[in-house]
Every structure is written in structure tokens, then in C-alpha cells.
Specification:
Layout lengths: L2 E7 L4 E7 L5 E5 L6 H6 L4 E6 L5 H4 L2 H8 L3 E4 L31 E3 L4 E4 L2 E7 L8 E5 L2 E5 L2 E2 L2 E2 L9 H10 L9 E4 L5 E2 H7 L6
Parallel strand pairs: 3-4, 4-5, 5-6, 10-13
Antiparallel strand pairs: 1-2, 2-3, 7-8, 8-9, 9-10, 11-12, 13-14
Length: about 210
């Protein structure tokens, strides 16, 4: 059983997730955005097994250094965006100086790839490579819970006009991978409210079935 807590971090209200399993003293963090104080308070006294990154845009990694130093845990990101962590140009933080100072972090400890299985919290997380919003975007599936980053939102999709974005890839990722999951799968996006695969297949105006 996966327990999920969500925190809206930074000026872009990025969803960071704190996950726990059967042992409440162990956790996993997904996408630590800017000003992660609330997230760190919730994780106080907890062993964080990993920080999982859906992609490396600045609003999803701005709190990474602070969280990583506090919890001394490894970071996972898709290999196509491993260099983005250390490059304010690639991670977009130079494009919005009003929203963020330049963001540069140390490299991740581990690369992610399509189909990879991660054993965390006594549970299984499957990595789906879902490019389109960015070339290294991934989604994490644990049971019936999907963490989609900025690929699929409630009645929306991620923008594709940033460097490395491609509309055709985004639609292929959604139709070819996410929409093939069970309709009961709950979707926890990088911004905005939770949704489900079944709801999006019926109601998403950008990617209708």
C-alpha cells in the first residue's frame, strides 16, 4: 500500500510527492521543487531511500540540493537529462529569472531507462519513458498510482515549446503508453489536481481517444 502526500512548491506550484509504504519511517520523494521546507518537515526523522525526478526542468529540481543534503539520499533521472541538472541553460532556469535564480545541482547517482524496475519501500516502481514535454521525461508506475510529471494533467498536457519538446512525441507517449494502462490508474501530475487514466481518455480535449 502506497501512501502519498503532495506539496505545492515554488512560484510555479510544482507538485512534490512524499511516498511511504508499510514502514512509515522510510520514504521516497518525487520532484523536490523550490522552497521545500514543508516537504522536509514532513520527512523529518524519515530515511529517504531515493529522490525520483520525472524530468529536469528547474521548477522540479530547484529544491533538490537542499533535500539531498538534508536526507543524504541518491537521485535518479533519465540519462537524456542527466546533464541538465548542472546546466541552468538546459534546465530552463535562465529563461525565467523572475521565477528562479540559476539552478545547478550535482549529478544524479543513477540513470533511468524505459522498463526499468525500482524496488523501493518494499514496492515495485516501473519506469515509463514518456518524452514530449522534454526528451528525458519519465512517469513512475507503482501499482495503480502513476506519477506523470508534466506529461499528462487533468484535462491537459505538458507544453512542448521548450527546448527538446516535441508535440508528436508527447501524444505518442500518452496514447501509446499511458492510455494503455488500466483505466482505474490514478494519475498524480507535476502540476494541478489528481486525475485518472479513464477520466482523461474520456475528457482530455488535447488527447482524445
Amino acid at each position: 500500500m502506497l501512501n502519498i502526500r503532495s506539496y505545492n512548491l515554488g512560484p510555479l506550484q510544482t507538485n512534490a510527492y512524499l511516498l511511504t509504504g508499510a514502514d512509515p519511517a522510510k520514504g521516497v520523494i518525487i520532484d523536490p521543487g523550490a522552497n521545500p521546507a514543508a516537504l522536509l518537515r514532513a520527512a523529518e526523522g524519515m530515511e529517504i531511500e531515493a529522490i525520483l525526478l520525472t524530468h529536469a526542468h528547474f521548477d522540479h529540481i530547484a529544491g533538490l540540493d537542499e533535500v539531498r543534503k538534508a536526507k543524504k539520499c541518491p537521485v535518479y533521472i533519465h540519462a537524456l537529462e542527466s546533464e541538465w541538472l548542472g546546466s541552468p541553460k538546459l534546465n530552463g532556469s535562465l529563461m525565467w529569472p523572475e521565477s528562479s535564480p540559476p539552478v545547478s545541482t550535482d549529478p544524479a547517482e543513477y540513470d533511468l531507462a524505459e522498463g526499468q524496475i525500482l524496488k523501493l519501500l518494499g514496492l515495485t516502481f516501473r519506469v515509463l519513458h514518456t518524452p514530449g514535454h522534454s526528451p528525458g521525461s519519465v512517469s513512475f508506475l507503482c501499482g495503480n498510482d502513476l506519477f506523470s510529471g508534466d506529461v499528462l494533467f487533468k484535462m491537459g498536457v505538458g507544453r512542448t515549446d521548450l527546448p527538446g519538446g516535441r508535440e508528436r512525441d508527447l501524444f505518442d507517449s500518452i496514447r501509446g503508453k499511458l492510455y494503455r494502462l488500466d483505466e482505474e490508474v490514478k494519475v498524480y501530475p507535476g502540476h494541478g489536481p489528481r486525475t485518472s487514466i479513464g477520466f482523461e481518455k474520456l475528457h482530455n480535449p488535447y488527447v482524445p481517444m
